[in-house]
Write a structure and sequence with these properties.
single chain; alpha+beta; 2 domains; nine-stranded antiparallel sheet; elongated
């Protein structure tokens, strides 16, 4: 692709400097992109767009894949992180670089694959389970429901 005589192969031409792309328009575009990929987070505010624009104002080269992988981002999983207990077993939900993880004593742990906004699937110790976090009206999560072998097990937050 050639823009103003400059060739861009495999990268998007810079456009942050365009007057037509003000912070409000950029925030709307970012919200559209976010939602087209299924992210149900709040809309991006014009102030957030302005902060991102200011933080990268001195940048003159395209971002590399490695640089982008190192940029922290909020997946909205923090409300699920914590310890949950059923009977004598305490399970730990943690957020790692690759996503949400579930660790269960005597079973092991691993990555939880997102199935929906609050529902995940995972395997530990040869068993596959579905985990559904119950979100209260105020946005907090105080329990999860574990679907295992046709059984529904309520698991309460411990911390």
């Amino acid at each position: 692709v050639k823009v103003n005589g400059q060739t861009f192969d495999g990268v998007m031409p810079p456009h942050g400097h365009l007057a037509e792309l003000d912070d409000s328009t950029l925030a709307g575009l970012m919200t559209f992109l976010r939602r087209s990929w299924g992210n149900k987070a709040d809309p991006v505010a014009a102030e957030e767009a302005a902060a991102i624009r200011a933080a990268s104002a001195g940048r003159s080269a395209p971002w590399t894949a490695q640089e982008l992988e190192e940029v922290p981002f909020d997946r909205g999983f923090s409300r699920f992180v914590g310890k949950y207990a059923v009977s004598f077993i305490t399970m730990t939900v943690s957020e790692e670089r690759d996503g949400l993880h579930l660790s269960v004593p005597m079973y092991g742990g691993g990555l939880l694959e997102p199935l929906g906004g609050t529902t995940f699937a995972g395997s530990a110790g040869g068993e596959t389970v579905k985990v559904e976090f119950v979100v209260e009206e105020d946005g907090t999560v105080n329990k999860m429901l574990m679907h295992r072998d046709g059984e529904l097990i309520p698991v309460e937050r411990k911390d």
